[in-house]
Design a protein that fits this description.
Layout lengths: L4 H11 L1 E4 L5 H20 L4 E3 L4 E4 L7 H6 L3 H10 L5 E10 L25 E7 L11 E2 L19 E2 L7 E5 L4 E2 L10 E9 L9 H4 L2 H6 L2 H6 L17 H7 L10
Antiparallel strand pairs: 1-8, 2-3, 3-4, 4-10, 5-8, 5-10, 6-7, 6-9
Helix pairs in contact: 1-4
Length: 267
């Protein structure tokens, strides 16, 4: 897989999307499905569920905080390798959520994942998404739809216009890498009995404000067992020694800023 990262990046930059089949081993796929189903049930039961389309669609947010399997896959080395190239060598996690759509689920509004940035968007990429396909994505079951080539516009879709979209088709166990400027949406689930589950791991350059405030929301035990990679993704490191500090820069930076040019007794 590592040898394919350059191909993935090339396709994302050229086409706005790249689908990698057979990315998720069967055993891992089953672990993900089990935990997503558990969360869907428990959040509905507890009255905390984020529901759309009168309950046909459900989202679960802050997945890093809700299962060790999510801690594992959000820092998958091949995803990290692709995001590293796409996002200029450094990035953090903006949000990690699941989206489950059932029969009757309505389509989402067309948008880009950088839609909050005033256009025109920079020529360099600000964000990218790794879409983990937990079930098959089809025309019928609400698979993501997108506008081919839209990432090259470096702007947002006009809400007053209609655009032709195509279905992001793929088998369960695939991962789709999505350019942060590509216009896309959840499709309508017009099936009778199909449920489509997916995970959306959304990464951004370190200077952008993130969707999920991980510093506040992540449980203490998650922080304690987190790898250096995961802590960095969650915003635990400084960026350029100027963004993300607590009560000013660390001691080493303070000493560097106050470099003495004469003996201390003259101060």
């Amino acid at each position: 897989m590592r040898a394919d990262i350059e191909r993935i990046v090339f396709e994302v930059e050229s086409n706005g999307i790249c689908v990698v089949e057979d990315f998720v081993p069967v055993a891992l796929l089953e672990r993900i499905r089990q935990r997503v189903d558990e969360l869907n049930v428990s959040e509905r039961r507890d009255g905390d569920a984020f529901l759309e389309s009168e309950g046909a669609n459900q989202r679960v947010f802050n997945l890093v905080n809700k299962g060790e399997v999510f801690e594992e896959i959000v820092q998958h080395p091949d995803v990290m390798g692709a995001m590293n190239m796409l996002l200029g060598g450094d990035f953090i996690l903006s949000g990690f959520s699941s989206n489950t759509t059932g029969p009757g689920g309505e389509e989402m509004m067309l948008h880009s994942d950088s839609g909050y940035v005033p256009p025109p968007h920079p020529e360099y990429l600000l964000s990218a998404n790794a879409i983990w396909m937990i079930d098959d994505f089809t025309e019928e079951n609400g698979g993501t739809r997108y506008v081919p080539g839209s990432h090259k516009h470096r702007t947002n879709p006009d809400a007053t216009k209609e655009y032709e979209t195509v279905a992001l088709a793929g088998k369960a166990g695939s991962v789709a890498f999505l350019h942060g400027y590509t216009w896309h949406k959840t499709g309508a689930n017009v099936s009778r009995d199909q449920t489509r589950r997916a995970l959306f791991a959304y990464y951004v350059r370190p200077f952008l404000r993130v969707q999920e405030n991980h510093i506040v929301s992540v449980r203490e035990e998650v922080w304690h067992r987190a790898s250096p990679t995961l802590r960095h993704l969650l915003g635990g490191d400084l960026w350029l020694n100027s963004i993300g500090f607590f009560d000013g820069p660390p001691k080493a930076m303070r000493e560097l800023a106050f470099k003495r040019r004469w003996p201390a007794e003259r101060l």
